[in-house]
């Protein structure tokens, strides 16, 4: 994984997922494979992981002035989740 720099207008990332559903499998894999390196590259940036049984996986990005965007992550592979993080970071 290449280092993804978070910051600028982006103020926070929240990742919502189910601990057991197949729809969240790629998100769980992303967290296992990429979270540590993402956090090391952005040690002070808030990246929140929220687990809730039965929900559809989704990523939320909060920007300056309270603007928020979200993207569904249903049935995505780990690499696709990383691509969504990179898109939201731009």
Please provide a written account of the structure.
With 90 residues, the protein is an alpha+beta fold. The protein contains two helices and four strands. It has helices spanning 25-41, 78-89, and strands spanning 10-17, 47-51, 58-63, 68-72. The protein has a four-stranded mixed sheet, covered by helices on one side. Helix 1 crosses helix 2 (78-89). The model has no long low-confidence stretch (mean pLDDT 94).
Helix-strand blueprint:
Layout: E1 10-17, H1 25-41, E2 47-51, E3 58-63, E4 68-72, H2 78-89
Parallel strand pairs: 1-2
Antiparallel strand pairs: 1-3, 3-4
Helix pairs in contact: 1-2
Disulfide bonds: 18-52
Organism: Papilio xuthus (Asian swallowtail butterfly)
Subcellular location: Mitochondrion inner membrane
């Amino acid at each position: 994984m290449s280092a993804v720099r978070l910051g600028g207008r982006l103020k926070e990332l929240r990742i919502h997922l189910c601990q057991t559903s197949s729809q969240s499998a790629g998100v769980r894999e992303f967290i296992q494979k990429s979270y540590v390196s993402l956090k090391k590259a952005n040690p002070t940036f808030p990246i929140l992981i929220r687990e809730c049984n039965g929900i559809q996986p989704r990523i939320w990005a909060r920007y300056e002035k309270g603007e928020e965007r979200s993207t569904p992550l249903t049935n995505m592979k780990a690499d696709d989740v990383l691509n969504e993080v990179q898109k939201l970071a731009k």
